[in-house]
TrEMBL record, chains A, B:
Gene3D superfamilies: Phosphate transport system protein phou homolog 2, domain 2. Residues 23-110, 126-211 form the PhoU domain. GO terms for cellular component: cytoplasm. The keyword Transcription does not apply. One of its GO terms (biological process) is phosphate ion transport. This is Phosphate-specific transport system accessory protein PhoU. It comes from the Bacteria. It is found in: Cytoplasm. InterPro entries: PhoU, PhoU-like_sf, PhoU_dom. It holds the Pfam family PhoU. Residues 221-242 are annotated as: Disordered.
């Protein structure tokens, strides 16, 4: 970290308090992802319900982080560099809140999917994808605490793998749907979940990019290159179409 | 608006400048929605490309609003009520940015969909849904500028209609997919777009809720009741399944 020493460290102490809350929020979100994925795979509606319930705590923590950040700005009137750090905290909290929402969403679909024909291997594939994202998120927050731009860059690169997992699943779901119309409804839901997990990866990447910005003063040139990508290529051409 | 008169109005002037930027951002986002929907319906790839290009301007404006808001907080050290207003501006800008992203997303799929069999009526239905959301967004921003909690409440209510439009489309796409496997791929893309338009409605609602919070000091109890809803009921039971 290349910022000047403070004469007073009151700002630093306040910021560290807020950062600790962000780390706690990260832990809650990570638990939400893995529990939602586990609930989906084992059709455990109780666990899914718990993930939904816990999301309120995540939202409340974000609100608290926002309030305390605003208070910190108002109270200490930080200079440009410090101000940037407080804004980064708020952005990271916002990303975590979105990821928590996606996990809640996944949990919501567990009930519907439990009543539909199972798609072989889908639960496991989604859990594997979720755990890759989970690891990205952990490392993104680690890179934030340690102001480690290299680790943050590594997180960014791994987002490509998650995108590839998504594209492979998308292809697989299409195949299942074309094979048997009874698979269409469950695959629609599973596809949504896969897309949401891919979006979680985008948010972990956004956190990593904030870290790179904090450390180097610049956002990566091709910021979030894969965000919202459309799987144009992997779509099998519909039979009999020109 | 029930906040005390300021002795100095420097804060108000600064805030009004930022608000004007939010309104401008709103205009850009509204244009993005309607152009993206028009491009999709008429398979106009050039217009879609323009929507994608213009999204950078929307993102840049959000960054500017964030910076100026932060500077305003640092410079004027606003009290609780004023601080809340600045934070609301930032939240509204963040919602607009997300809506812009969804519009860009819709535009991205125009190219893929242009090469797939057309689904009758889908383009028109999506344009109608988009224009309902567009109107919600306009009214949400209007309610913000006029601090009109009634109009904001009206916007919230209209989100239910958008959710219904989405559920109807979801059912329709499922029917098309079950009728003919060649419809599966285009319907997957169209379904995504429909879901994204529904999410735009959620963001317009979030803006309306910020307005209610600013005016009344409280968020509506059942904040965002329809956000991320899973269409459990409207899913036709797969044939031959128990």
């Amino acid at each position: 970290m290349n910022r000047e020493k403070h004469i007073s460290s009151a700002f630093d102490r306040d910021l560290e308090t807020i950062q600790a809350q962000v780390v706690r929020m990260g832990g809650m979100v990570e638990a939400a992802i893995s529990d939602a994925a586990a609930a989906l795979e084992s059709r455990d509606e109780e666990l899914a319900e718990e993930v939904r319930r816990r999301d309120k705590g995540i939202d409340a923590l974000e609100a608290q982080i926002n309030e305390e950040s605003a208070r910190l700005i108002a109270l200490r009137a930080p200079t440009a560099t410090d101000l940037r750090m407080v804004l980064a905290v708020m952005k990271i909290a916002a990303s975590l809140e979105r990821v928590g929402d996606y996990a809640k969403n996944m949990a919501k679909r567990t009930h519907v999917l439990s009543q539909l024909p199972a798609i072989e291997g889908a639960g496991m594939a989604l859990r594997r994808m979720s755990s890759a994202v989970d690891k990205m998120l952990q490392d993104a927050l680690d890179s934030y605490i340690r102001r480690d731009a290299d680790l943050a860059e590594d997180v960014r690169q791994r987002d490509l793998e998650v995108d590839q997992m998504y594209n492979a699943l998308f292809r697989e779901f299409l195949t299942h749907m074309m094979e048997d119309p009874r698979n269409i409804t469950p695959c629609m839901h599973l596809h949504f979940i896969a897309k949401n997990v891919e979006r979680m990866g985008d948010h972990a990447t956004a956190i990593a990019e904030q870290v790179i910005y904090l450390v180097t003063g610049e956002l990566p040139d091709d910021a979030r290159p894969k965000s919202n990508s459309v799987p144009a290529d992997p779509v099998p051409a519909p039979e009999g179409e020109g």
